[in-house]
């Protein structure tokens, strides 16, 4: 029992990052993500790591990309307008295939909005925030405990697929304290990027047989290569060829979308005989869970599908859900974002509606129940 | 068992520490806990608020809505947060406070917490630990030993004696009334 401790969500994020091997953090503090910077600043130097408070959010992510290229697992965290500022470099990391974890503790926007209030309105920005076509992985925890484990997973996925991974938490989870038992060393497998061996022929963006992504040497360790946000050939040098751009883009997408089975995780609750399914994620899932437990006692056939991996979206699972239930309600703390993705997947097979709002007031279990009763009456 | 606490006072009085101690006592007892606090300008002076949920089962909805225990040690925080209680709620106030109308409960307990901190302990900063003593005596969730252990694991070693005294003064405030 003694290793069960009280911990804040933002601290659990840092503990997860350190467990996964993070040894570099750079960023610019902003509420409600500031504790992640503070705690990283306290902890990293003691572990031989580095913390840099940069002059703004843009350089915060840029330095983290640089550290990752130099071979160190890196993270940056932000909220609200800070996430907007990070978008250009998220695209750069996607294009250059740099492993990186970006934490966004969501607060109410647009602009500076409500700095201390919780929200889930950066769902679409997490997917499409940077310009151009690129895939992204985004994960969303619904508790302090899950924040720890998903941060570890975010690093593992970033390393495995050489991609930026976004951890989408929110003020409610980030600032709450709950009981947690941290994983012991060795309890969770940690994935490290594959590096080329010395003495072999090295082509920076060539994929070796049986591997998913190009091997990635640490800058400054004897491998000379060029890294560019321009479309590039296997050599890493820019290429204007449309055929090369198509091939490169295909590869960026297929490395993620060919592995959705590995990347997508979710939780299902009481769906076996459900007529109505709430699709939800993050802190809102806790309002939905509270409502469903009560509704079930009253005899209503209601269940929950909680997306843990937000992007790529759980297409197969949502299609199967649409075959099973008569109604889907997407519950999220925004004016309707993930509902667009769910509608796209369901394609009119069953009615899909939205439950949410744009202010800081968390959805109440009663509001969830009321909607369920309206639909099932 | 499912209990909601709303602790309130002025920024700097250690209201949030009081909530963390309560939550850590819950963790040590094997309970599910959730602690959250008001953030924003009001956390620096003005009315500060800390919510704690203690439960034997998983805590789904992560927000305190109808506190079983409402505690307020300043007028500002009583006015701002002292409403919407249920009939069965227990409200604990410092004796310097005019009890707000529309509190929602008649289970009201009033103790000279601030005065005790100032005169008996000689340190206004002990008001939060005195309040934990009051909570300990008025509730049966934790034994006195369990709560004191949680307090001592959070306060600096050199102030252990002071905090023990503060805790026991809080218990005495309740027992003297009984």
Quick synopsis:
With 377 residues, chain A is an alpha/beta fold. Helices cover 38% and strands 20% of the residues of chain A.
Q: What key phrases describe this protein's structure?
A:
A: 377 residues, Rossmann fold, 2 domains, eight-stranded mixed beta sheet, 14 helices, 15 strands, globular, B: Pyruvate-ferredoxin Oxidoreductase, domain 3, 6 strands
Could you characterize the architecture of this molecule?
The complex is a heterodimer of chains A (377) and B (178). Chain A is α/β, with parallel strands linked by helices. Chain A folds into two domains: 1-263, Thiamin diphosphate (ThDP)-binding fold, Pyr/PP domains (Rossmann fold), CATH 3.40.50; 265-376, Rossmann fold (3-Layer(aba) Sandwich), CATH 3.40.50.920. Helix content of chain A is 38%, strand content 20%. Chain A has helices at residues 9-20, 34-43, 57-69, 81-85, 87-96, 123-128, 144-161, 171-175, 242-257, 260-263, 284-297, 315-324, 338-346, 365-376; strands at 4-8, 24-27, 50-53, 74-78, 100-108, 114-118, 137-139, 164-170, 177-181, 266-269, 276-280, 302-307, 309-311, 327-331, 352-355. In chain A, the strands form three sheets. In chain A, strands 2, 3, 4, 5, 6, 7, 8 and 13 form an eight-stranded mixed beta sheet that branches. Chain B is α/β, with parallel strands linked by helices and 178 residues long. A six-stranded mixed beta sheet of chain B has the order 2-3-1-4-5-6. In chain B, helix 2 links the parallel strand 4 and strand 5 (90-94). In chain B, helix 1 (15-28) crosses helix 4, helix 3 crosses helix 6 (160-177) and helix 4 crosses helix 6. The A-B interface holds A 1, 4-6, 31-32, 115-116, 171-173, 175-179, 283, 286-287, 289-290, 293, 362, 364-365 and B 20, 23-24, 26-28, 30-37, 39-40, 59-63, 65. Strand 9 of chain A pairs antiparallel with strand 2 (32-37) of chain B, so a sheet runs across the interface.
């Amino acid at each position: 029992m003694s290793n069960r401790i009280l911990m804040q969500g933002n601290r659990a994020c840092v503990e997860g990052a350190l467990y996964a091997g993070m040894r570099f953090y750079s960023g610019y503090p902003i509420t409600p993500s500031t504790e992640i910077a503070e705690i990283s600043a306290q902890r990293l130097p003691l572990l031989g790591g580095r913390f840099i408070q940069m002059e703004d959010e843009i350089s915060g992510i840029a330095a983290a990309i640089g550290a990752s290229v130099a071979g160190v697992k890196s993270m940056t965290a932000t909220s609200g307008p800070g996430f907007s500022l990070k978008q250009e470099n998220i695209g750069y990391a996607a294009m250059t295939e740099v492993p990186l974890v970006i934490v966004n503790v969501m607060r109410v926007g647009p602009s500076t909005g409500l700095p201390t209030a919780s929200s889930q309105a950066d769902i679409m920005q997490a997917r499409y925030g940077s310009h151009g076509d690129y895939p992204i992985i985004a994960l969303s925890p619904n508790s302090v405990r899950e924040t720890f484990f998903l941060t570890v997973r975010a690093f593992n996925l970033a390393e495995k697929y050489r991609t930026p991974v976004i951890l989408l938490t929110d003020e409610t989870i980030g600032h709450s304290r709950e009981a947690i038992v941290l994983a012991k060393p060795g309890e969770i497998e940690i994935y490290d990027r594959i590096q080329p061996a010395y003495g072999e022929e090295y082509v920076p963006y060539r994929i070796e047989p049986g591997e998913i992504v190009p091997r990635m040497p640490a800058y400054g360790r004897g491998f000379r290569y060029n890294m560019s946000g321009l479309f590039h050939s296997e050599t890493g040098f820019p290429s204007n060829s449309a055929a090369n751009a198509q091939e490169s883009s295909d590869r960026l997408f297929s490395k993620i979308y060919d592995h959705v089975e590995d990347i997508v995780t979710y939780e299902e609750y009481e769906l076996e005989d459900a007529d109505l399914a709430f699709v939800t994620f993050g802190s809102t899932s806790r309002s939905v869970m509270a409502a469903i437990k009560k509704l079930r006692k009253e005899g209503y056939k209601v269940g929950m599908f909680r997306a843990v991996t937000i992007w790529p979206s759980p297409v197969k699972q949502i299609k199967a859900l649409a075959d099973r239930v008569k109604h889907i309600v997407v519950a999220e703390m925004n004016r309707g974002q993930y509902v667009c993705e769910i509608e796209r997947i369901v394609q009119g097979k069953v009615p899909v509606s939205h439950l949410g709002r744009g202010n800081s007031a968390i959805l109440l279990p009663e509001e969830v129940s009321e909607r369920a009763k309206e639909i099932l009456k | 068992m499912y209990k909601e606490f709303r602790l309130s006072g002025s920024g700097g009085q250690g209201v949030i520490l009081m909530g963390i101690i309560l939550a850590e006592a819950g963790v040590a007892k094997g309970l599910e806990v959730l602690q959250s606090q008001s953030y924003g300008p009001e956390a620096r002076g003005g009315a500060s608020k800390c919510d704690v949920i203690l439960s034997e089962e998983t805590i789904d909805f992560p927000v305190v809505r109808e506190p079983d225990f409402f505690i307020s040690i300043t007028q500002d925080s009583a006015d701002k947060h002292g409403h919407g209680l249920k009939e069965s709620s227990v409200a604990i106030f410092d004796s310097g406070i005019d009890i707000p109308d529309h509190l929602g409960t008649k289970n009201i307990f009033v103790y000279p917490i601030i005065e005790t901190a100032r005169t008996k302990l000689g340190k206004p900063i002990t008001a939060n630990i005195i309040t934990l003593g009051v909570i300990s005596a008025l509730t049966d969730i934790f034994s006195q030993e369990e709560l004191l252990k949680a307090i001592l694991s959070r306060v600096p070693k050199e102030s252990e004696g002071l905090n023990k005294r503060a805790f026991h003064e809080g218990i005495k405030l309740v027992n003297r009334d009984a």
